[in-house]
């Protein structure tokens, strides 16, 4: 094996594998170091709900054979209401998808080393020049990329990321058969991805049902362990308890049975990124973090961040005499904020406000969306202040006051009194 490459990537998830695909396709020597064993990959990292959209499939050339089910709509549910938006999508078999990315990158010349746990950066003259893995193994590169997710062994030691515990989201998902997909009194979930806002099920987060064909679906929930979760959670409930509670109380699951071996647990951080890169180094995917804060979509965001990092690396390496310094890798930061997560701060504030709202407000939100239509939702989702304002009314003043006090320490109650 070589010990020197153009680019060294830690992590073979969607971000790292896509970065390797793009770089290998451009003729660069790239190696990906992955913790898991190849014959089980991805066992421990098979964590994603894997709901995505045709734009990702087309942009990254993803084949149909990794898709469990193409969907026609997105359904938003609250405790007693729902809203349906026509939106084509795809629910992937995440393990097949990850294995495809690895195989496709290898076809273009990317090297993969499995059972290679990255532990630390190798530094010379204050700059990263390589990484150590499995204790005493070493590999060197002109540019190093951390795509390990929240573990972030390189990005943390280089002070590129500061992932806060209070922004840590956890999730659990099972796959079931025997689900009543079109239950009377509920939205028709055939060929749909459903997201439910309901603090009784996911306090400070949301739950989901993603149809995967016939009477099967992915069912799960996630939440952030922050002030909203503390306000609405049950003291004695774990995330497993919340999922069990939903399964026991929702009639759609009355005859459902878990599919053996189809349990997934995952985590991500929901926060604004700080630094994204430094000399000879970039952090991508959930290391940054990159997951969409509002709806939790991560695959497309991670793939886009991997592509942006590959473009930044190419902008330095193709000339031969341009050092991959912080300044010269700044194109990655530009592409990330322009293409990967535009309006990131606004969307993050929307997320925090949304999860702070009570269940009764979620019911009214579904009614408002039905009245205002898809355009308002699309614009609000993109961070439009006008669209967000259209979804608010005078009854939201106490909620906004609570939000302002939590976020900015501003006491509206004291001002009004």
UniProtKB/TrEMBL annotation:
<dbReference type="InterPro" id="IPR002938">
    <property type="entry name" value="FAD-bd"/>
</dbReference>
<feature type="domain" description="FAD-binding">
    <location>
        <begin position="5"/>
        <end position="307"/>
    </location>
</feature>
<dbReference type="InterPro" id="IPR036188">
    <property type="entry name" value="FAD/NAD-bd_sf"/>
</dbReference>
<dbReference type="Pfam" id="PF01494">
    <property type="entry name" value="FAD_binding_3"/>
</dbReference>
<dbReference type="InterPro" id="IPR054884">
    <property type="entry name" value="Dggglyphlred_Halo"/>
</dbReference>
<protein>
    <submittedName>
        <fullName>NAD(P)/FAD-dependent oxidoreductase</fullName>
    </submittedName>
</protein>
<dbReference type="InterPro" id="IPR050407">
    <property type="entry name" value="Geranylgeranyl_reductase"/>
</dbReference>
<dbReference type="GO" id="GO:0071949">
    <property type="term" value="F:FAD binding"/>
</dbReference>
């Amino acid at each position: 094996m070589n010990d020197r490459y153009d680019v060294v990537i830690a992590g073979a998830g969607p971000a790292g594998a896509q970065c390797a695909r793009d770089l290998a396709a451009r003729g660069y020597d790239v190696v990906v170091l992955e913790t898991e064993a190849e014959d089980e990959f991805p066992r421990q990292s098979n964590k994603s709900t894997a709901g995505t959209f045709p734009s990702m499939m087309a942009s990254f050339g993803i084949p149909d054979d990794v898709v469990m089910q193409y969907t026609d709509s997105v359904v938003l549910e609250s405790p007693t209401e729902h809203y349906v938006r026509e939106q084509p999508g795809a629910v992937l078999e995440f393990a097949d998808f990850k294995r495809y990315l690895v195989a496709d990158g290898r076809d273009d010349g990317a090297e993969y080393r499995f059972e290679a746990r990255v532990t630390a950066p190798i530094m010379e003259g204050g700059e990263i020049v390589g990484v150590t893995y499995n204790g005493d193994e070493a590999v060197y590169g002109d540019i190093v990329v951390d795509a390990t997710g929240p573990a972030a062994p390189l990005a943390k030691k280089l002070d590129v990321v500061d992932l806060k515990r209070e922004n840590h989201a956890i999730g659990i998902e099972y796959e079931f058969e025997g689900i009543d997909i079109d239950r009377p009194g509920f939205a028709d979930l055939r060929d749909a991805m459903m997201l439910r806002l309901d603090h009784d099920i996911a306090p400070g987060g949301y739950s989901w049902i993603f149809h995967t064909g016939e009477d099967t679906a992915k069912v799960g929930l996630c939440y952030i362990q922050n002030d909203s979760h503390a306000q609405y959670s049950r003291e004695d409930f774990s995330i497993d308890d919340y999922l069990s509670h939903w399964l026991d109380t929702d009639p759609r699951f009355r005859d459902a049975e878990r599919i053996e071996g189809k349990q997934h647990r995952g985590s991500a951080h929901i926060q604004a990124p700080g630094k994204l890169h430094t000399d000879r180094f970039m952090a991508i995917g959930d290391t940054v973090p990159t997951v969409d804060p509002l709806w939790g979509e991560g695959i497309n965001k991670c793939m886009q961040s991997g592509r942006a990092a590959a473009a930044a690396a190419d902008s330095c390496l193709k000339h031969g005499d341009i050092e991959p310094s912080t300044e010269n890798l700044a194109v990655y930061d530009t592409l990330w904020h322009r293409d990967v997560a535009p309006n990131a701060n606004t969307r993050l504030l929307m997320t925090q406000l949304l999860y702070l709202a009570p269940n009764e407000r979620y019911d009214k939100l579904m009614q408002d969306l039905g009245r205002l239509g898809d355009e308002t939702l699309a614009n609000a989702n993109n961070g439009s202040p006008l669209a967000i304002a259209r979804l608010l009314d005078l009854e939201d003043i106490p909620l906004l006051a609570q939000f302002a006090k939590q976020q900015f320490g501003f006491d509206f109650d004291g001002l009004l009194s």
